[in-house]
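Run log, item B.
One chain of 239 residues. Sequence copied directly from the ordering sheet:
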Amino acid sequence: MVRPGFGGPCLLCHLLLRGGPARRQGVAPMRYAAMIAYDGSRFSGWQRQPGVTRETVQEYIEAALELLNKSRTSVVAAGRTDRGVHALGQVISFDAAAPWDPKKLRNALDANLPPSISVIRTAPVPEDFSARRSASWREYDYFVWKDHGCPPQFAPWVWKNTAPWDRGAMRSICSLLRGEHDFGAFCRKADRPPGARRTILSAAVSGKGPLLRFRIRGDSFLTNMIRIIMGSMDLVASG
C-alpha cells in the first residue's frame, strides 16, 4: 500500500551513544559495537538472504569483517530495515579475532565497504552485549512531500503524496499509536509473530511547507509495520 520513498530510519542504541563501556584493565575486549549509516536504495534490506542473489547491507558488512578477521564473522543489528530503507544510526555488534583500536577498526571497516555504507564510530563492549537485545529503543523517520513540485534532490528520500491530509486526524492517530498495543494488523500475515504486542514510546508528525516528517519511536517493530502504518494514516487523513 505504501509506495517507495521511505525516509531515513535512525535506529539508536543508548549504550553505544554514551560512548560504550570503558576498557577493563588487563582484559582485551573482543566484542565491538559499531554505528553505521547507509543509503538503502541499492539494497534488498539489511538482512542477509541465504540462497537469494540480492545485495543486502549485512552481506557487505560481514564480507568486510571477514577480510579483517580472516574468518567468517556474523553481525547482529539493532533492527532490520526493509528494501530501500536508509539508516542514519544503525547499531551492530560483532566479535573480532583480536583487539582493535576503535578508530583503526572504524577506518579499516570503512575502507572495505562501498560508498553507500559508512561506519560512523566503533566501541569495545562487554562480551554479553547484543545490538539487538541491548537496544533501549528504535526510531524511524518517514518523510512525505505534499506538493506536485518535488525537487529532484529530495525525490529519492521522500514519499510524494499530494492528497490533502487532515492534520488534526494525523495528530489523533499519533496519539492512538502511543503505548502498548497488539500491532498484528500492521504486519504482513506471513511475517506475523505469535506475540505482536509492541510499545510505542512516541509518535508525532511535524513539518514546514510541503515537507512532513512522521517520527515514531518504540521498543521494537514488526516487519513492514512502519510502511503499513503510513498507508493506514494516509487513508484516514485523506478522508
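Observations after the first pass:
- Residues 1-27 have pLDDT under 50 and may be disordered.
- The chain has two domains: 14-125, 138-237.
Flagged for discussion on Thursday.
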